[in-house]
């Protein structure tokens, strides 16, 4: 299994110099495509900061053990570090193909974590691109779905690259023959029970009879679409930047659609809404997006609408759309004491509850004088609406329920603005406003927020709540 030299002039080989100086990880399966990918990476290994190969064992086929042995021996011959990752595929959850792909990339990404700006290489080629486009069309995918196989994209803490997308399967197999590169063949490739195999074995042969260059033509079409997508993404990114805000002090982004025409810009709103949710790892169906849009277009007075996506509630509140915190309504009348471990100048305070972890860290978005917090504070979540507070500039006390209404804080976001106290005295509403006692104890910075009153002491500190 020596790597013989041959003339490569007839095949357009990828240029690996674009990834020079970075750690390389090869996703190796032992098939023709990944075996050629490994050989090409080895041929260019002097350009890499490091080179390793990872085989993902899905335990779906009895012959997979022999594939692991083949890959291990091949890497030993080339002097490339090799790892086998054993994974479990839940075959009861929808598509086995999709579930296997999910756990495979999870396993591969673990090898990226300890590296600085690594590149993960997979062996997709032009024929894979044709199959992926056809599958996306049959599934009613968007432009993003049609372009799912990109030559390169950001992935985890590095880059996912597909150098062989410039080559067809026949070119890869020819390169393997010419260079004495051996490989294994997956017997399930001949089974039509999987969607991709059906496309590969039954559909694309017919297409090639009529359109011999269909793979190359599809690659060119995808290239044109990718250029148009880049222009569209820049436009959507600008709209998102202009119309996305955060409630004061908390890291919940809010899409404000108030600047859009409710009918004329419907399509544009749909694209912006989809991208807004995608950035929060939420990918609702077109039907659910349409439902959100209807709630915005035809609001019901004094009511909020919502959809559920993967256990997450996405809500329409006036012209605003955002996700409801996972701890909504679960912290009612909950009191959490946070301590700094005896270090008053510690930039992070932490506390615990049976279900959540609470942390207070410096808010990087708030500049100004250093605002220390006491070594011990207590947070009071969702107190009784009859709770009264005294705020500067007011002659009497204010009911907390009236304070929520004045500040237009939706019911499902009030859990993000607990009352906070130290020494048994209420200092203010977290992130929103200090009480008279809080003002006396800490003073008020000069900075003014958009509503015209000074930022509270707590504005310099961000409350983070995570699951246990």
Describe the model.
The chain has 468 residues and is of the alpha+beta class. The chain has three domains: 16-210, 3-Layer(aba) Sandwich (Rossmann fold), CATH 3.40.50; 244-323; 334-467, no CATH class. Helix content is 33%, strand content 21%. The protein has twelve helices and 21 strands. It has helices at residues 32-43, 64-78, 96-110, 126-138, 143-146, 169-178, 195-210, 214-243, 266-278, 286-297, 400-406, 436-442; strands spanning 23-27, 50-57, 82-86, 119-121, 152-155, 158-161, 244-246, 253-256, 305-309, 312-317, 320-323, 334-339, 349-352, 356-362, 376-381, 388-389, 398-399, 419-422, 425-429, 433-434, 461-467. Strands 3-2-1-4-6-5 form a six-stranded mixed β-sheet, sandwiched between helices. Helix 1 (32-43) packs across helix 6. It is elongated, with a radius of gyration of 28 Å. The model is unreliable at 1-7 (pLDDT under 50).
Q: Secondary structure elements and their pairing?
A:
Elements: E1 23-27, H1 32-43, E2 50-57, H2 64-78, E3 82-86, H3 96-110, E4 119-121, H4 126-138, H5 143-146, E5 152-155, E6 158-161, H6 169-178, H7 195-210, H8 214-243, E7 244-246, E8 253-256, H9 266-278, H10 286-297, E9 305-309, E10 312-317, E11 320-323, E12 334-339, E13 349-352, E14 356-362, E15 376-381, E16 388-389, E17 398-399, H11 400-406, E18 419-422, E19 425-429, E20 433-434, H12 436-442, E21 461-467
Parallel strand pairs: 1-2, 1-4, 2-3, 4-6
Antiparallel strand pairs: 5-6, 7-8, 8-11, 9-10, 10-11, 12-15, 13-14, 14-21, 15-18, 16-17, 18-19, 19-20
Helix pairs in contact: 1-6, 4-7, 4-8, 8-9
